[in-house]
Structures are given as C-alpha cells and as structure tokens.
Amino acid sequence: MLKKAFAALTATALAVGMLAGCTDSQSSSSNESGDSKEKNGIVTITTVRTLKDDTKFREGEDLNNNPITRWSEKELGIKWKTLWTAPNDEQYHNKIRLALSSGQKLPDVFKVSDGQLINDLIRSGKVMPVDEAIEKYASPRLKKIYEQFPEAFYPATVDGKRYGIPRFSGGNGSDSLLWIRKDWLDKLGLQPPKTIEDLEKIMDAFVNKDPDGNGKKDTIGLTLASKNGLATWLADGSFIFGAYGNYEPGSWSKGEDGKLVYGSVQPSMKKALAKLNEWYEKGYLDKEVGILDEQTAIKSFVAGKSGIISAPPWAAGWPIADALKNNPGAIVEPYPLPSGPDGKIGRRGEGLVTGMFLFSKDFKHMDKFFQYLDEAYAYVYNDSKYFKYGLAEGYDYVMKNGKPVYDDKEIPGGRLDPGAYFITEAIPTVPYMLYDLVEELYTTKRQPKNAYEYTRIVSLGESFMKAATIVNQQNQYRIENEFTGPPTKTMQKRGEFLTKMERETFANIIYGRAPLSAFDDFVKKWEESGGKEITKEVNEWYQSVKGAK
C-alpha cells in the first residue's frame, strides 16, 4: 500500500505532476519525411491525439489555431501541427498500429496508453530512448518529479532504457470513497458508517424500512458494478476487498516476500466474496449485479432506488448531481471508507500514469518539447511569466478594473478550457498534488489565489472539495496495481480464458450458484492454466524495470 507520507509531496512535485497528467502530444515535421522542420526560427512539431466531444473552441479555431498554439509559436518558437485526431483511445491506438505496420512515418511526439502497443513501438526501433534528453533538456522541476516517481517510467522501459515521458494521472484522483443518501440516514435515525458492520446495518435499513417513503420494498443498499471486475472506476467494490486484506481483484501487489502476486487468487478474496454473497442473499445488492457495468450500475442510484455508491470525488459532478436533480429533497454526502473486522481498510489505487509520450527516432527538438512542457507546469506552480492570471483572457478569465474575474457568467460566450488545447489534452497534474491542494483549501477555507485554484477546485463545489479531502486523508489505504508492463507471453495466450474464468467464478459465488469452496477450485485451476507461469513472467518484468535508471 502506498503510505500517506509518500502522498504528502512537496508543492513543487505536486504541481508538476498535475501538468504531466494532462499531456498528450506529438512533435514532428511539417514536411512529408516526418522530421521536425525549422523555418524563420520557428520549429514545427507534429503530433496526433484523441479529441473528445467536450473539447470546445471559439468560432474559427481548432487544435492548430487557438490561444495555446498561438502562444507557443510566438513565445517559444514552436508551431504545433496536429496531423489527425480520433474520438477515443481504441480508434486512436488502431491508427497508430496501422501506421506502424504499414511503415508510415510516425509523428514527432505522441501519447500511447496501450501497454502492448508501447512495447511494439519500442521493439520496432522507430521511437527513441529518452534518458539522454531528460538529462540534457528537462528542467530542474521536471527532473525532480521524475526522480520522485521512477516507477512512472516502467510502462516504457525496455532493456534498462526509458523510451517514454509519463503522462501522469492525479495519483489518487479516481480513488473512491462512499457517497450516501444522508436524507435517508436522517429519516431512519442512522449515523454514517465507520465499519463494515455499521454499513450492513445501514443497508438493511435502506432495504427494509422504506427510506424513499413510497410504501414499497423497492430500494437496495449498495450500487455495485461487477461485469468488468469488482475493483473499478465507478460503483466500485474495491473497499469490500480492502476491508479483508491487502489485495484487490485484477491487480498485482507485493507479497510478503516482495515479489508481485495476483490479488484475485489471494486468501482474503474468499472472505470478501462470502460477504458479497451474504449481502446479495439479503437483498442489499441489485439482483442483476453480475451483469452491470459502470454505466448501467449507477442507474439505480441516479433513480433514487439505491442509498450508497462508492465513487471518486469527481462523481460530485456526475452521477451525484443527476441523482440530486432526479430526486427533489435528496441529500448525498461523501464519507470515508469503513474498516473490516480486523480494522483493515483498503481501496483500489489509481495508477501513476495514463499513458506515455513517445518520440520518433527522427525527432530533433527534444529541447523544445521540454521547454514547452516546463512552461505548462509553470502555470500549475503559479510562477509562469506567461499565464499570470489564467491561460487565456476571454477563455478562462476576463480582466475587470485591473483584476482577473473567473466567473463563467462574466466571460463573453462562456468559459472555455484552454488547458485542453495543450498536447497534454488538459492541464497536467502531479500525482497527489491536486488533492493535497484541495485539502489545504477546504480545511483552511481560504480564497483561491489564481485561476488554477478557482477553475480546477473551488468552481467544482463544496461536495467535491469535501470528498477529495476525505480521499486524500485515506491515502495510506491505497492498493495500487504494480504491474504496468505489456501483456506477458502467457497472458497473451491464456489471459482471456483466465479472466473469464475468474469473473464467472466470482459472480457464481456472489449469486449463490456455486459454494464458497469454488474459490479454492478456481485458484488451483488458475495456477495450472497459466497463472503460475504468468506470475513468473510478471516478476521477471518487475525485476528488469526496477533496475533501470
């Protein structure tokens, strides 16, 4: 588990990771060869990226013409040229694969989040190692972040060399806590849960004491998604497993000997599955829990038919806001995760990175890339000479009477997010930085000092800030997946079968279709059907990347 001390980063590291978490760019040439080209002191760097529907522009603008690209060209001498976009990661990665297999020139800089594709690109010899460039061109603040999170480089480390720059996540930005219908608690005279036993009493009341007052027994206790795994990003069940041990299903963690072990086959899983079966039999869970994914599971909570959901702080905006809108008078509050019988608490920990920036072997301007990246971090650090009040006047702020105003209603045409125009696809984040800052703002009640604090924290509301503070205060209970490499050889051959077997076994135990002893049979079959070999391969990978620079 990650310790709280590790999460309490310096302000510098915190701010830096924030920016890195948003980078998704490429740099290449403006000519057909793919080599970056310099003309009149301006370096053209090509890139490709995903572009989601919620990225908005002012009329007449696009990814190649917006306030960030104009700033980059004028102040840094970098002209970014986005060659193409894709609406989602799947289509994006397919286009990269096609370019690789057909021998096309790669863009100068591009982000990849698929582990196998990262490995294939590195093995192809078409992307360059970055160790020398980091040493020569990365700013002190970037180097500091990279030194604090060496494991962030593991996904793009091969034979002791690093081939990618991490696109950092928020660290704990998508870690979950409990969201509970407080109006139901108050109506039934209940207190928030501190233990799993407390939670059971609440769920029992939510199911059997008509909390919505419609005279029908039509409510459930806990919204849970399990179709794609029980430790997930929304309607998360990881806290249940964390209450019984230091492992999460579908995740690789350090065992007692320091080697990586697969969470789904550890003995503590059995206790959690027994508890889930008990809850299902008592009607605390949706009858169709086994086939519900994240999107379908939340429907019960949004409709006002469920009283509890485990979700990240950003859920305050969705789906919590939808539940409040659909159920007049509803009050939903965030609460810490409860402890198990032995005092254990645990949750699925978000990974450190959401992708890696790779660079064409022909790219000649790593110095410019790092200059651009550092200036983006400078905004998060609030020490930028270019972004003193915000990213772009008329987009995320306006000046009135000599002072910046961040209120959406005061910005002609409404506030837009220029951070989405960076190659990072959003304002980057250093792992754990954002929620450290949220906690400081929430507990001290001070006013935001800059655009970043207003637009990324305060404007999201009290509920989000309270939830993020709670998550940050429980950082010591994170259980992070330590395996971030490409699928191993045996995973490629047997992984699909093993995953299917695991999910079917877990679902059957929860539904009561199979006895609890089926877990022991599953563990034995998992090991015999490739699991033992996969464990060996995972640890070989782990040892190889730990020894890298």
Description of the structure:
It is a single chain. The chain is α+β, with helices and mostly antiparallel strands and about 550 residues long. It folds into 2 domains: about 40-170 and about 355-435, 3-Layer(aba) Sandwich (D-Maltodextrin-Binding Protein, domain 2); about 175-350 and about 485-525, Periplasmic binding protein-like II (D-Maltodextrin-Binding Protein, domain 2). About 40% of the residues lie in helices and about 15% in strands. It has 20 helices and 18 strands. It has helices at about 5, 10-20, 65-75, 90-100, 115-125, 130-135, 140-150, 180-185, 195-210, 240, 270-280, 295, 300, 320-325, 365-380, 435-445, 450-455, 460-475, 490-510, 520-545, and strands at about 35-40, 40-50, 80-85, 110, 155-160, 160, 165-170, 175-180, 220-225, 250-255, 260, 305-310, 330-335, 345-350, 355-360, 400, 405, 480. Strands 9-12-8-13 form a 4-stranded mixed β-sheet. It has a 3-stranded mixed β-sheet with strand order 1-2-3. Helix 2 (about 10-20) packs across helix 15. The chain is globular and about 75 Å long. The two termini are about 25 Å apart. The model is unreliable at about 1-35 (pLDDT under 50).
Question: Can you describe this structure in just a few lines?
Answer:
The chain is α+β, with helices and mostly antiparallel strands and 549 residues long. The protein has helices spanning 4-7, 11-20, 67-76, 89-101, 115-124, 131-137, 140-148, 182-187, 196-208, 238-242, 268-281, 294-297, 299-302, 320-326, 366-381, 433-444, 451-456, 462-473, 489-511, 518-546; strands at residues 37-39, 42-50, 78-86, 109-112, 157-158, 161-162, 165-168, 177-181, 220-223, 252-254, 260-262, 306-311, 332-335, 347-349, 353-359, 398-400, 403-405, 478-480. It folds into 2 domains: 39-168 and 354-437, Periplasmic binding protein-like II (D-Maltodextrin-Binding Protein, domain 2); 177-348 and 487-527, D-Maltodextrin-Binding Protein, domain 2 (3-Layer(aba) Sandwich), CATH 3.40.190.
